[in-house]
């Protein structure tokens, strides 16, 4: 399947298509999904973020929104902030999120970006990030896991990345610390 960079108007239409699929199919995370997808207009029209989709824009298999930082972080280079990724409920588990991330990473590496940061909004999102080897460094104020990783293995470097340091991290979280956050019955992952 092809990937496409979308205009803000196309992004909002793609988000509406995925939100109605979430409402129709009711995966456990459907409330999270519809809420996030309803913000795509804000992210793209107002914040200047960029949306990408896998498959035809009017029938997306997956949609992602990223915000490429304008200025490099001293010593760490230019960051790509992955704000959102959603796969159509019927296409889940078939590699769509991986394929869309791969295509975006290739594109932004070519543009000189070096690192990616993102947040796990759901358990499935955390699984995607963990399978890619993107370490979680800390919890944000919403108690979501925050990941920060090089865009490719050859760009890895020692030390604590700046956003992780700002959250008080001195090392990546261990697997058991991450599971404790995921299994916290009062935390954001309790619903899924
Ligand atoms: C999270 C989501 C985007 C994953 O999309 P997907 O297209 O099904 O993911 P993929 O098939 O590309 O899977 C990528 C990897 O993550 C793993 N993975 C994906 N979903 C998983 C799940 N629910 N449980 C465990 N592992 C999972 C896959 O096994 C795969 O691993 P591999 O590459 O080593 O084989 C999708 O479930 C979704 O849209 N969920 C609702 C919105 C959401 O949670 N977004 C993420 C917020 S951070």
From TrEMBL:
Residues 153-192 are annotated as: Disordered. InterPro entries: Acyl_CoA_acyltransferase (IPR016181). This is N-acetyltransferase. It comes from Actinopolyspora erythraea.
